From TrEMBL:
<comment type="similarity">
    <text>Belongs to the PP2C family.</text>
</comment>
<keyword id="KW-0479">Metal-binding</keyword>
<keyword id="KW-0129">CBS domain</keyword>
<keyword id="KW-0460">Magnesium</keyword>
<keyword id="KW-0464">Manganese</keyword>
<feature type="domain" description="PPM-type phosphatase">
    <location>
        <begin position="199"/>
        <end position="468"/>
    </location>
</feature>
<dbReference type="Pfam" id="PF00571">
    <property type="entry name" value="CBS"/>
</dbReference>
<keyword id="KW-0904">Protein phosphatase</keyword>
<protein>
    <recommendedName>
        <fullName>Protein phosphatase</fullName>
        <ecNumber>3.1.3.16</ecNumber>
    </recommendedName>
</protein>
<dbReference type="InterPro" id="IPR039123">
    <property type="entry name" value="PPTC7"/>
</dbReference>
<dbReference type="InterPro" id="IPR046342">
    <property type="entry name" value="CBS_dom_sf"/>
</dbReference>
<feature type="domain" description="CBS">
    <location>
        <begin position="27"/>
        <end position="85"/>
    </location>
</feature>
<feature type="domain" description="CBS">
    <location>
        <begin position="102"/>
        <end position="159"/>
    </location>
</feature>
<dbReference type="InterPro" id="IPR036457">
    <property type="entry name" value="PPM-type-like_dom_sf"/>
</dbReference>
<dbReference type="InterPro" id="IPR001932">
    <property type="entry name" value="PPM-type_phosphatase-like_dom"/>
</dbReference>
<keyword id="KW-0378">Hydrolase</keyword>
<dbReference type="GO" id="GO:0004722">
    <property type="term" value="F:protein serine/threonine phosphatase activity"/>
</dbReference>
């Protein structure tokens, strides 16, 4: 494990590569840190704190990289594996070997030295990974963190290049040091936030070539909505794929029903609801698997929260509005010249997807031979969900769907249908989207999003992809 030779200076943002970022980090005294898979978690934690790093590579006795460990992994280990010592609050039993907690090498994402700063920023955003190794062949050159990306973006800015280090510190940091006396945390009962509500509707169409009622399922509630896509290959074993998807959404609904007031529900994160629903299905030994995406609106904050496992997901569509004098526009309001937009709306946010490979999404599930306790590496758990929080404003449109829509309908066409459906109710808009997606799935003359992705993976596919 080594770093290449160093040179000073950072090019502009469009030219900055991950190798440039590593060189800049090296000049700040950073290097690649590692522990052995047989080391204990306490040693890894001490190593990170001593060296002031947020992650370490993990290697085996033959110096081969076998995994990756972050500070978050250590905290999860203490919470999940630790047991309180009688009479104290101190946990015990968490100081296990690193190899039993680390992220496996096969599950890591990585960058190459030629990847750009924008590639690095996009990979952090889409993958949900905060620390990403940079590989040259089979050699680890270093690890890039969000802090490194932020530093590179700052150094590449014209303003930073024109200022001295002291001027930059004074103008950037000095005026923001120290939280004012009397600062308090915002609570859901405070009235500084405008109350928001979801107006939701659903349209569910089964596969046009199947006689069954379909393998997709949904949750429709006042503050939380969700979709699940049962994995169709379970039919080969005589198991109805719809059972798991429907059971998961029903269990999620039961968890939501436990909270009768807006104040109670505001504390119910989609990740927590998904975990409780999944745990219920494990206890009931429900066989099957599905993707899942739960989306909730905090009724007191202008914020959408989501937990997504697999290739279902949502688009947040926002209406353009003129910028008034003195008004600051957020990143979701602005859009670059090549952004997906149509008429009055643009795509302000798209949820990240999770795939093991082409057409092989992450999925929650249980097989007949799954262990009663412990992990089953054939499936994911709610701990693997991509978690997002997105600011919203009144009039935003959220399109939540399974891959039956996203595999067949380009985002531009989604925008066009929303634009054409201006003024109609939510039920009509949902029907318009679902029926158009089904029409496209049967069209053999188009290059659907699924067909384009298939060709990128050297698979010959033309037209749409019939599905629920």
């Amino acid at each position: 494990v080594s770093l290449r030779g160093l040179s000073s200076g950072m090019p502009d943002a469009k030219q900055t590569t991950t190798l440039d970022i590593l060189k800049d980090a090296s000049l700040s005294g950073q290097r690649v840190h590692f522990v052995l898979e047989t080391d204990r978690m306490s040693y890894a934690a001490t190593h990170m704190i001593t060296n002031r790093v947020g992650s370490v590579m993990v290697k085996d006795a033959n110096d081969r990289v076998v995994g990756f460990l972050t500070q978050r992994d250590i905290l999860r280990c203490i919470v999940h594996k630790g047991r309180p010592v009688p009479g104290t609050a101190e946990p015990m039993g968490w100081n296990v070997m690193v190899g039993s907690v680390m992220a496996q090498a096969k599950d890591l994402v990585y960058l190459s030295p030629e990847d750009t700063l924008e590639d690095a920023r996009a990979l952090v955003s889409v993958s949900g990974k905060r620390h990403i190794p940079v590989l040259s062949g089979s050699t680890v050159l270093g690890v890039i963190s969000p802090k490194d990306i932020a530093r590179a973006l700052h150094h590449a800015s014209a303003e930073a290049q024109e200022q001295s280090a002291k001027t930059t510190y004074v103008s950037t940091v000095m005026g923001r040091r120290g939280i004012p006396l009397g600062t308090r945390l915002q609570t859901s009962g405070d009235q500084l936030y405008q109350n928001f509500a979801l107006r939701s509707a659903v349209c569910s169409l089964s596969h046009p070539h199947k006689a069954s009622a379909g393998e997709d399922a949904f949750l429709l509630g006042p503050h939380m909505v969700g979709v699940a896509d049962g994995v169709g290959s379970w039919w080969e074993g005589g198991i109805d794929p719809a059972v798991y998807a429907r059971s998961l959404m029903h269990a999620s609904l039961l968890q939501c029903a436990k909270h009768h007031t807006d104040q109670q529900f505001a504390q119910r994160l989609p990740s927590k609801v998904l975990d409780e629903a999944w745990s219920m299905l494990r206890r009931q030994r429900v066989i099957g698997s599905s993707t899942a995406c739960l989306v909730a609106l905090d009724p007191f904050k202008a914020e959408l929260m989501a937990a997504n496992v697999g290739d279902s997901g949502f688009l947040l569509l926002r209406r353009h509005r003129a910028k008034e004098v003195g008004e600051m526009m957020g990143s979701l309001d602005a859009y670059p010249s090549d952004a997906k937009r149509c008429g009055q709306f643009h795509v302000a946010f798209r949820s990240p997807q999770q795939l093991r490979g082409f057409n092989a999404p992450f999925q929650l599930g249980r097989a007949p031979d799954s262990p009663e306790h412990g992990p089953d590496n054939r499936f994911e758990t709610p701990q693997d969900a991509a978690l997002v929080r997105v600011p919203v404003r009144g009039g935003d449109v959220v399109v939540l769907a399974t891959d039956g829509l996203f595999d067949n309908m380009p985002e531009q066409e989604v925008l066009e249908i929303v634009e054409e459906s201006e003024g109609v109710d939510e039920d009509t808009l949902a029907r318009n989207l679902a029926h158009r997606a089904q029409e496209l799935s049967l069209d053999k003359s188009i290059d659907s999003p699924f067909a384009l992705l298939a060709k990128d993976n050297d698979i010959c596919w033309g037209g749409g992809r019939p599905d629920d």
